Structure formats: structure tokens, C-alpha cells
Amino acid sequence: MKFVPDVTAGDLKRWHQSFDLLNRSRLQRARDRLTSRQQQVLDVLPLLFHLNHPRLPGFIHHKVTAGIAQFNPDHTQLQALQQLARGIKLPRMQHDYALLGVYLMGSVGSVAQSHGSDLDVWLCHDESLASEALSELQNKCHLIETWAKQQGCELHVFLMNLSDFRRGQHRSAEGDDCGSTQHILLLDEFYRSAVWLAGLKPRWWLVPNEYERKADDYWQFLLNDMQIHPEQWLDFGAIPSIPISEFVGAGLWQLNKGLHAPYKALLKLLLNRHYASQYPNIRPLCWDLKDLVHDGNSDAGDCDAYILMLRRISDQLAQEGNQQRIELVRRAFYFKTQLRLTQLSRQQSDSWRSHTLRQLTDAWGWNRFQLEDLDQREQWWPTRVAQERHALISEMLSSYRLIANFSQKHSHRIRVSRRDMRLLGNRLYAEFDARPGKIININPGIVSSLGQETLHLNLCNEDQEQQRWQLVVGDWKDDQIRPEQILKQSPSLIELLCFAQFNGLFTPHTRIRLHPSDNSLNQYQVQELLQRVRALEHQSPSSTELQQAARPINWQLFVNVAVDPQQQLSRRGMQKVSNRDDALGYSSAHDNLILTVDLLTINSWGEWHVNRFTGSVALLDCLQHVLQWLPFAREHGWPEMLSHSLSQTHAGAIAIRVEQLLHDVLQHFLQQPRSPYLIEVAEQYCLLEYQSDGPKLLKADNARHLLHILQRPREQYTAYVFDRAALPGSPLRNIFEHSRSGVWQLFYWHQKQTMYLYFLDERGALLHRTVTASTQQHPVLPVLRFLRQLDQRWQLEQQRGGRKLLLSELKRQANSYEFELKRKRLPEVAEQTANIDLRAVIDEQQQPTLYCNNEEFSIWQYGDDLYLAVAAAVLKLRTPGSDYPCYLTDVELADNGRVIDHLEAKFRIEQQLNQALQITTLTTAPA
């Protein structure tokens, strides 16, 4: 069927005239907002593209592409040309000009245009222009932009190849890189906001909305019917609808812009959200404008691009029934206009913009009190700014989640660059994600500055373990702080100071006041803290950094902030003095002077995060946190780390100890990541080790507990490393310094009637036992005999070579608590042979069966008298009068476990045997 639209020549003429009237009205409104010099830039702009003349801005040479099709400058434009370069004459009209049209777009001519609004210009050119000609034309545009800036006018010119544009291949036309995220949405904005300056006009003006989906057929009908002159019109493309592929990208883009211009971004974001809610029957906003104009309404106020957007968004929110969101959108619109209705000059009061805005605010029911509050936005307290920020971010992220969910539902139709998604998503996460300890930006473009004359630090609780600080703005009386004055609360004073620095609350003249004045922090320490915190700089991350995972680039440790580690003694002026200056074990009482650590992490995404560690092992907990980044550090090295100690007492000793420990531990794990690091803190022992699932901190309250930890089975050889101040005068330092992989080592220390035995297995696990020295037999010999027998049996069972066994004696050095180690020769095999062969076999139920010279003694036969029966058998085989203990020559376990398991079983059974031996000796002794 032949396509015959219901359009007459009179309709086309009327629509054309209506758009021309609207265009003139918008252009006049745009000029009204400009200074005289800016007006001259706007008036002469088309002629700068139309001409190449040495006396005009942008001139390169006479062959640069120039000349605008169908351009007949008006009196105002010619007058501006003569003011700029008197005497220049226009060439005769030609028919082959390569420049097709000049347009303004954006907020110009609307109620949202302010003195600071940019002029975004679309310069459409012939698509056949060679690349060299385009490059020269681009250079000319840059020169014109530079000249305009000198006149106080921010101008951006975008070259537009309309064939590429219709295919979605274009550079940004808004001054920013829209990447792959927008095309039709940009065209939608162009159509509802464009101001025609020169050249051909958009054919879209003459296409009724009902024919948008068949725009080409409609236009062809007009051409065939000769109702139009095609050389007068340009095709930017039709907008039958908004493709869903643009919602996610455009939403992310507006969120990204919202980091610095939240109010403007919010309006466009909510428009995208509105479009998503209409899917699949989406009505572009530019259709509203066209309907108004085609109905004969050319009033610039009714057709204002921003008011149209506000109406559409408000209608959507009204349907959802959330008045708070409507109020937020209205505030965003009000701030976008940059008009302050309660602070207008006489000239501003008489302007069309103020009249329009006053009509809107009256319709909203805003009173003078509300307007004054908004107009004094620059004087808002930071708490008020933070409250507004939360409302803005909540709305923007809510819109983002809705659009993201929408995109997942229609993922097969969404085509957005993964790079754009990742980059913008990471930027939003870095800026908006809130979690404990993270320093957030409470002022994403809401006010120009948050600098304060006075900030108060209020200590609510002086208990060092449960203290809480408040960051307070404004003054108060009678200790009555109003809730709106409390900007932030935290147990970490460093978090509050970093928050103030991050958000620009400090100025060179900001006064800091402490409350109460007699707390554990004095004014001198506050100034020291401020000096160090204010040296920190917040840097925005690059796109390259945001493409990668966030990583720490700087660590700052603040030790004992507002804490006195010897508070009770300090108050009486009795701080301990000692030649033992280890801050983790100070003086003879081994006091731990490091009670709190505030760790500030600055990462590659520009995030600041404060972790607070308190208690006896605060520094060790901090190190455990830092060691999470060991895989990164092994490839790139550790980030920069600085420590600050501001304790009232022993600050020097603390600073030195912290720096030593940080250096030693971090370098150790770079070089030996599998070797646990032992640190002594006061009367505790802490073992830092890096396991497959990350760093672990094991704590031992006493030496016995530490030995239990060191006895743990290891999957592979483990070389324990001791901190420089750990376990002074303990044999463990010497033992582990001589640890060797694949070797059994037995160490002994003889002190009076007590023998201390230490056994290291082939993987570095330690077994410790204390035994009573015998007068008839050296306690080490039975252990050596047992190990030799066990190794021989395993050689046969496992078909392997023998295990090397080393014997060493530990002795204290003369006039010292330090130990020295001496290697000992192993006894000859004959000396290791027992007169009585005493073995034990333990089954899966952990029930023992003993063999004495091959005679079997089982629990099934003897029950609770098992050990008494074995003891009696041993006594029969001994020389009368022998009173030395029983020693097992071998133990077989059901799971054939590690050597330490066998030694433990040996000592456990021997203890029961020797108890039975004593009982049997007493009962059989002559009266």
C-alpha cells in the first residue's frame, strides 16, 4: 500500500514558523545571559566558520575548509563582524560549501543557563571531507575556542559527520568522553535543547511524532510531492524510541558525572530511569517538545528543555508516591539554575528566569524560610552537607541498581563496552561504597568548600579501652551539643582527623579545641597530629588505576594516639625507668607500651581507610592485617609505610621498636613466606605465619602454651624465626637457629637433677619434655635408642634410607643468661642396645598391647592391671636392687604417624609403667 501521510503544505509551513519563533526566542534568552564580550562571541561565531581571513580568530591559511551552506548573516552578526575586524566583506554566495550547519545544544536559552554555562557547538560538515581537511578544520576550531576563552566564554566545538552520527559512530558532543554508552539519548537531548545558528535546519522539525518510526518514507513522500527543498534540511536521524542498550551505559555515565555535579547528573539519571520504566513503549522527551511546537506553542518557557525534563521526572515520582524524592529533584533543579530568589539584584528580579523559577517554587509550596536555607547553601554546616549527600547518593545508587537489574534482564540486547562498565563501576565503588573505617567524601560538589573556622574534638569516655571521640562543628553552651553538630563519631581520633582532612574541613586558620581540656591528649600532641595528618594528600585515581584491582600505595601507622601506656604511673610522676627499653616488654615488669595502632591505608583508587587495633597485641594484629598483601608485595614490593608515635611517655622507644618490627617482619615474609615469625609481647608469645588462606596470628599466654603450638604437625619443613627481642636467655633461640630440614635433632640441657629434652623432627616441629636425671643411665640414651629402633623399622616398611640424627648439648654461657650449643657424638650402637626389649603396639581404639622380651601383655588379658603385670615382668628380668626407670625401645601406632606422635606415646606409656614399677617395688620389698 502506498505511504500517504496526512500532512499538508500549510502544516509544514506552520511547523517551520513555530520552530523558527522558538529558536529566535531561545537565542535571545541565551544572549541575555551573556556579557557583552560573550555576546560578541556568539554573534560572530557562524561568520568565523564561514570565512577565512587573516584578521579573524582561527585563521590558518586561505585553503582551510570554510563557508556555511544557505548562510545569510543577519544585521546583528554583521555588526559583530565589523566590531571584530572592520572592513571585512563577505564573498558571494556559493552552492558547494562543505559546512552544513552550526547549532548550540545543552542548557543555553533555558532556565538552567547560568553565567558559567559552556557553549557547546555542533559544526556539521560534508562527510566527503578528506582527513587532512578535517584535521585543519579541527585546528581552526581549537584556535577559535582559545580566542573565545580570552573573551570570557567557555566554548567547545564538535565536528559532526552526520552519516557517522546516525550509525552511532561519533565523538562526544558534550565535552566529555561518553565512550560506548550513549547515542540516541544524546540526540534526544539535542532535539529538545538545540538552538540553530546558521546553515541547514534539522528535518526532524517537520516530522510529526506519529511518523518517527517511518521517517525516511515520510521524508521521501515530501520530496516526491515537492513540498520541501531538500537542500535546506539536514538529517540527524529519527528517534522512534530509546534503545535499551543505552540505559546501563548512560546511567553509569551520569553517576560518574555525579561525583562532581550531583544535581545535574541526578536529573538526567532519573530521566534514564523513567525511560527504563516505560519499556518497551518508550516516549522520548523530545517528542513532548515537538508536540508543543506543532500545536503552535512557541513560548520559550513552556518549551524549556529543563522544565520539560523536570515535569516528566516529577510525574513519574508522583506516580510512585515518594514526596521526599520529588523534593530532592526540585532542589536539584533549583540549584542547577544557580538563581537565589532571596538574594536577587533588581536586574535579576526582572529577568524571565527569575519569574519562571518563582512561579515554579510557588507552585511547589516553598516558603521564604525554605528558599533562604537553599540560597545559603554555601554556609551549610558539614552535617547538613552530609545529610544532603546521603540523599543524593541513595537516589543515584537506587537508580543505578534499577537500571542495572533492567540490563541483566535484557542482557542479550545490551551492548556496552566492558571497559566502560568496569572503569565507571570501579570509580563509583571507590567514591560511594561505604563500610566501617572508610573515609567518605561528604561533599561531591554540593558546596564549594567545607573549610571551618573552629573544629571541636570531644572525648565522651576517658576509658582507654572504650574511649569515643566526636568531631563537632559550631559552638555550644553548657556542654549541650545538638545532634546536628556532631559530624562524626569514632573510637579512633585518627579516623576523625583523616575525615576532616579528606573533606577539606581544615583551613590554614582552623582552630582545634579539645573537650574536656584535661584529657589524655594535650594541645601540643594535637598540633603534632594535625601536622602529620594535614600532610596527607587526596589524589584522584587515573583511568589506568581504576581498570585494575585496588591496592595499597601508602600506609600510615599512628601509635598510642590519645593513650598513655603507663597512665596510672604517669599521673603520679612515676614512669618506669629501665635499661630494658623494648617497647613490647619494657622494664623488668615486661610492660607492653604499644596499646593502640591506627592504620591509615591509602590505595590506588584514592580511597582512605582507617583500621583501629587495640589491646595487648595491637601491633601484631595490625601486622597480620598488612600481611594480607604479601602476594602483591612479593611481586611489587611493599608500599611506603610511615609510623608515628605520639605517646606522652617513651615515644622514642616506641617509635624505634615499631620501625624495627615493621621492617624485620615485612622483609622476613618477603624472603621466607613459609617461616613463622615469633614475637614476644609482655608475657605473651605471638606467632605470625602465612598460610594458604592468608596470614594467621597465634597467641600463647605462657611458655607451656607456646611449646604446644611449636609441636603442631607441619605438612612441610618449617624454619621458625625469632624476633630480635623475643625469648632472651631461652634455649629455643639456639635450637631453632640450628634447625635443618630432613634431619632429626635431639637437644638436652642438664640442670641439677633435671634434664630438659628438646626434639626437632624432619619438618621442624618441636617436642619438649622434662625428665629426672637417673644416676644409673643418662636420660638421653633411651631416647636415642628409641629413635634408632623406630628409624630402622620405618626403613624396612617404607623402603628408604636411614634418617640422620644429630645430638647437641645446651649450656649457659659463663656470667650470662645466653645459651651456647655443643655438638655431641652419638653413642656406639652397642651402647644403644637395651638389656630388656620393651615394645608397645597401639591399635585403632588407642588400646595398648605391650611386649616384654616378646612376651605379650594385652589389656584384654590383664585389664586395669596391665601395667602392673608388665612392671612385675620387668623386675624379674632385672638385677636385684636396680631402681632405674623403664624405657620403651619401640612404639607402633595404628596410623603409623609422625615421629613426635611416637615419642609422645613412648613418654605417656613410660610414665604409667614407672608408676606401676614403683607400686610393684614397694609391694614386693621385704618387710
UniProtKB/TrEMBL annotation:
MF GO annotations: adenylate cyclase activity
Transmembrane portions of the chain: none
GO BP term, example: cAMP biosynthetic process
One Pfam family named in its UniProt record: Adenyl_cycl_N
Domain Adenylate cyclase class-I N-terminal: 12-205
Protein name as annotated: Adenylate cyclase class-I N-terminal domain-containing protein
Source species: Bacterioplanes sanyensis
